[in-house]
Write a structure and sequence with these properties.
Layout (H helix, E strand, L loop, with lengths): L6 H20 L5 H23 L9 H5 L13 E4 L3 E4 L4 H7 L14 H10 L5 H14 L6 H7 L6 H12 L4 H7 L7 H28 L12 H9 L4 H13 L8 H10 L5 H12 L7 H19 L5 H13 L17 H13 L4 H20 L10 H10 L8 H22 L12 H7 L2
Antiparallel strand pairs: 1-2
């Protein structure tokens, strides 16, 4: 992983690790809400002082390309929980994925003994602190205790057509659960705005808690018998696997990895931004994240991993029918056929990154450890060996390296999770953690309604005359 990090980034990471490890030794067990509410006054003060003293400081410029091209690279969002660097990838509160794997608590307990608990990453994203195992376990217990859906939600999900896309059903299910929003009730009752963040946190934790059952009900309804079985002796991800109908501890570990690495990718991606935008209107977290889910359902966002898997399987089927081996030479030929036909290579390229996505790397490492002889993994690995060079030669891709979607579908398929139309729902359970952790801080810091200025094509043209 070292080749992703600049010397400055390495120094920052080491410092963050030392600080967090020292905090672990010194800190007594506190609840998540206690930890957060203690941080709010100082963060509010710091932001107000920054705005007062430096509010007019220019931090960038906007080009016509950016206006027309989806606001790529425009620095205009405040995002606490993560930062995406074009070369080294995502950092969660300053920590890389390998850092998180090294220091966050696991299901077995010790950091590094398995994949991190999602609960530990929730704690990190919300508080910026590495939790103890006891704190992570207390959050597990809290989420299990909150996991009660309103009585009308399951009957509603059971009534939906089986051929309705799972993401559509997921959005419907979350919107239906909005009837229990504590934030909406508090706002209606006239609570002071300084208290908004407390009720937002209640909703956010409730949403984290109920999403697995909504998601699992959809999965079991569409593909199986509709029966959902829980095991609350397990952590969040393990219990979710049981609800889906999977009992392999290795799959539990994959789900922990999958849930953690899909949580957050700074604020500009469509699902995170949509959640932030809707939430800025003071819609409650249920409605805000429903907006995020609807963005995630788009083919250019959350549906990408199923497109990758379909492409790989088409490649495999074509080679089999033609009696060809899967090797660097045949994949190179197939890739050029795809590109010359005006199609894209799914799973390669990224709007921000200009290097191999660390989320791809950690999935590749998981595959090499748990499923090195899997045929689809071998294809993915061979593609990785040749595709960056092909795309560089092609010359129309800013980033010729694989992203997170290039690997995730193959891992799920290996464990028998073959319903790829559903894969984006898993993404949606995970992405709630990043988008809604930031939404908490949106309310705690009193961030205003988002309202950028739009311009007309005529106005743009007039700027260059």
């Amino acid at each position: 992983m070292a080749h992703f990090l600049s010397n400055g980034a390495k120094s920052f990471a080491k410092k963050a690790l030392r600080v967090n490890q020292n905090n672990l030794a010194a800190r007594s067990v506190t609840t998540l809400s206690e930890t957060l509410f203690a941080q709010v006054p100082a963060k509010q003060k710091a932001l107000l002082e920054l705005k007062k003293e430096h509010g007019s400081t220019v931090i960038g410029e906007v080009t016509i390309d950016q206006v027309i091209g989806g606001a790529r690279g425009v620095k205009c969002m405040l995002w606490e929980t993560s930062n995406l660097d074009a070369q080294e990838g995502i950092r969660f509160r300053g920590l890389t994925i390998p850092d998180c794997q090294k220091i966050l608590p696991t299901f077995k307990g010790p950091a590094g003994d398995g994949e991190p608990l999602l609960e530990s990453l929730i704690w990190l994203l919300l508080t910026s602190e590495v939790p103890t195992k006891e704190q992570a376990d207390s959050l597990t217990a809290d989420l299990h205790a909150r996991a009660k859906l309103p009585d009308h939600v399951i009957p509603l999900l059971n009534s939906l057509p089986k051929d309705m896309h799972p993401m559509t059903q997921f959005s419907i299910g979350l919107n239906a659960a909005q009837s229990q929003s504590k934030f909406a009730k508090a706002y209606s009752d006239g609570v002071h705005k300084s208290e908004f963040h407390k009720y937002a946190l209640e909703d956010i934790l409730d949403i984290f808690a109920i999403l697995p059952e909504i998601a699992a009900t959809i999965y079991r309804n569409v593909y199986f018998d509709g029966v959902v079985t829980k095991d609350t002796s397990l952590d969040y991800s393990g219990n979710f696997c049981r609800m889906l109908g999977y009992e392999d501890p290795a799959f539990d570990e994959l789900m922990r990895l999958y849930m953690c690495i899909h949580t957050d990718h700074e604020g500009g991606n469509a699902s995170a931004h949509a959640t932030h935008l809707v939430g800025s209107t003071l819609s409650d977290p249920y409605l805000a994240y429903a907006g995020g889910l609807n963005a995630l359902a788009g083919p250019l966002h959350g549906l990408a991993n199923q497109e990758v898997l379909k492409w790989i399987q088409e490649l495999q089927g074509k080679f089999s029918a033609e009696g060809k081996e899967v090797n660097a030479e045949t994949i190179t030929e197939f890739a050029w056929e795809t590109l010359d036909a005006g199609k894209v290579i799914p799973g390669y390229g990224h709007a921000v990154m200009r290097n191999t996505d660390p989320r791809y790397v950690c999935q590749r490492e998981f595959a090499m450890k748990h499923m090195p002889d899997d045929e689809l993994f071998k294809i993915v690995d061979t593609i990785y060996s040749v595709m960056p060079g092909i795309l560089t030669e092609h010359g129309k891709t800013a980033n010729p390296y694989p992203n997170v979607d290039s690997h995730s579908g193959v891992l799920l398929w290996h464990y028998g999770f073959t319903q790829y139309q559903y894969y984006t729902v898993l993404f949606g359970v995970s992405r709630a953690v990043g988008a809604l952790s930031q939404l908490y801080w949106d309310r705690a810091l009193g961030l205003p309604l988002e309202r950028p200025k739009s311009v007309t094509p005529e106005w743009l043209a007039a700027q260059v005359k």
